[in-house]
Amino acid sequence: MDGRYYNVTVTGDVQDIGFRRFIESTANSYHVRGYVFNDPDGSVKMLCSGSAESLNEFLYVIQTRVPSGVGIEQFVKDEIVTDIDLNLPPKFLKLGTDEIADIGRKLDKGVKLLEALPGIKESVSILPDIKTGIDAMNMKFDAFTDEQRTFNQEMREHNKLMDTHNLRLERILQKLVEK
Questions:
Q1: Are the CB atoms for 31 and 50 separated by under 8 Å?
Q2: Positive or negative, the Cα torsion across 169, 175, 177, 179?
Q3: pLDDT values of the chain reduced to their tens digit, one per residue, 179 residues
Q4: Which residues contact 72 (CB under 8 A, 6 or more apart)?
Q5: Which of 47, 41, 1, 53 is nearest to 24 (CA)?
Q6: Where are the beta strands (DSSP E) in the chain?
Q7: Cβ pair 120, 114 in contact under 8 A
């Protein structure tokens, strides 16, 4: 193991405002390895590794030089003491966590931001309908996926029966060839 490892959790207004991108670029400029991601609980979490000096500088910068709009309420840093290598990527990465729920939350936030603009409220009235349409498409896709899984299972069972049938046919043909 080369250096130290830290598990970090940042709470506050830290999602949907470019905080992970800021962390990623800052980490790479300080030669810190690891990754950062948005947690469903609203926090930003990371696992990072590097020399004591580079980690201290990196963690100081991401607490004190945050982009506008970021509001850190709590910054919890726990050192991970281990003798094994945690196999972090060679470059610090921002992990994508844009699952359906995350995308819906971002759309809702975007609608609120657009509605705050003067004279735009009428123009964005269709956005909730788009989100409803996306949700409906996702439900249909989930149903299709379930149907496809069922079909695939039925096909596996059918193929097993066909394999048994083919073995019987082979035995019959072998007997006919022997005669």
A1: yes
A2: negative
A3: 468 999 999 999 998 888 999 999 999 999 999 999 988 888 999 999 999 999 999 999 999 999 998 999 999 999 999 888 888 998 999 987 666 666 777 777 777 777 777 766 566 566 667 777 788 888 888 888 888 888 888 888 888 888 888 888 888 888 888 87
A4: 10, 11, 12, 14, 63, 66
A5: 47
A6: 4-13, 33-38, 44-50, 71-80, 93-94
A7: yes
**Residue 36, strand partner residues:** 46, 94
Q: Classify residue 40 by its DSSP letter.
A: T
Measure the CA–CA gap between 3 and 50, rounded to whole angstroms: 5
Looking only at the bridges linking them, the beta strands covering 33-38 and 44-50 are antiparallel
DSSP code of 41?
T
Order across the sheet with 4-13: list the strands: 71-80, 4-13, 44-50, 33-38, 93-94
Q: Nearest 5°: CA angle at 73, between 72 and 78?
A: 85
| CA–CA dist 106, 112 (Å, integer) | 10
Q: Are 37 and 95 within 8 A, CB to CB?
A: yes
pTM for the model: 0.58
Quote the tokens at residue 1.
């193991």
Distance between CA atoms of residues 36 and 6, nearest Å? 12
Identity of the residue numbered 29: S
